[in-house]
Write a structure and sequence with these properties.
alpha+beta, Trna Endonuclease, Chain: A, domain 1, five-stranded mixed β-sheet, two-stranded antiparallel ribbon, 3 helices, 7 strands
């Protein structure tokens, strides 16, 4: 399975989790190919709007370009959504990191880092 298809399947998995917890959720078409960084998923429940930039890794480590994170943060702020980086590592559940402001450097994470769980963000 190619990486695009694998990523889309993981995004659908997260959408199913969000829907099972009462959120309406959609994948944003062309999010990975857009000229400006857009979220992969937008979800809401009538009182809260969440944006997710999903990242997958076949290892226990992932780095995200600071420009991508900052564009995602700015989009989410304009949209009125709470921005989360969503990580899926091998043999793990989903992990989340809230983006609270623009970052100065690339964002590097390890599977062993402290993350938020789905139950803590919705």
């Amino acid at each position: 399975m190619n990486s695009y298809r694998k990523g889309a399947n993981y995004e659908r998995e997260l959408i199913d989790i969000l829907r099972s917890r009462g959120y309406a959720a959609i994948r944003v078409a062309g999010s990975g190919m857009a000229r400006f960084e857009q979220p992969d998923i937008i979800a809401g429940n009538g009182s809260k709007v969440l944006a997710f930039e999903c990242k997958f890794s076949s290892s226990d480590y992932k780095t995200i370009n600071k420009a991508d994170v900052n564009e995602f943060f700015e989009f989410s702020k304009r949209f009125g959504a709470k921005p989360f980086l969503a990580f899926r590592f091998p043999h793990s559940e989903w992990f989340f990191k809230l983006v609270e402001n623009n970052v100065e450097d690339n964002v590097s994470v390890k599977k062993s880092d402290k993350f938020l769980l789905i139950s803590e963000i919705i």
